[in-house]
Amino acid sequence: MSKRILILTGSPRRDGNSDLMAEAFARGASEVGNRVMRFEAAHKHIQGCRACDQCFSKDNKACIFDDDFNELASLMAESDAIVFCTPLYWYTFPSQIKAVIDKFYSFIIGKKDVPIKECMLISCGELDDPHVFDGIVRSFELIAQDRGWKNSAHYFVNNVSEKGAISHTKHLQKIYDIGKEF
């Protein structure tokens, strides 16, 4: 059965390692018949949540402060699964994705359900120690739990910092294979 998969990216560096990971996953997932959409949070204008509690109160938009989160909210409303594909910044999500995650609050306040039932985290970082991902993993697990999403997997790539460094590893093939199996 094919899925509607939303890939949420967070790197401000175009064509960097996490972009390459997102492309590999998307290629694999598409090749087996899934519909894949991509939202590049770092290249959108998304303000932080202002906790105004006016979500979905104006023109049925997720946020009354009209920014690109409303575009993402529409994509989420059409998705069965969401894949966070991001670099690791200071042991967690970069601020560009964090602004998006904070605005997930709108679905709670607006009492809106999205069809997303499954999620995955793919992340890369420059350090060798695998424990550097502990913070992002815990945050991701809590998000999945809160939203009622099945946490399907995590995949992490250490030791990649320079733009394109992941191209010299076996990780892109593994991520492509994960996309095919997702």
TrEMBL record:
The keyword Flavoprotein applies. It comes from the Bacteria. Residues 4-104 form the NADPH-dependent FMN reductase-like domain. Keywords: Flavoprotein, FMN. The keyword GTP-binding does not apply. It holds the Pfam family FMN_red. InterPro entries: Flavoprotein-like_sf (IPR029039), FMN_Rdtase-like_dom (IPR005025), ISF_SsuE-like (IPR051796). This is Flavodoxin family protein. The lineage of its organism: Bacteria, Pseudomonadati, Bacteroidota, Bacteroidia, Bacteroidales.
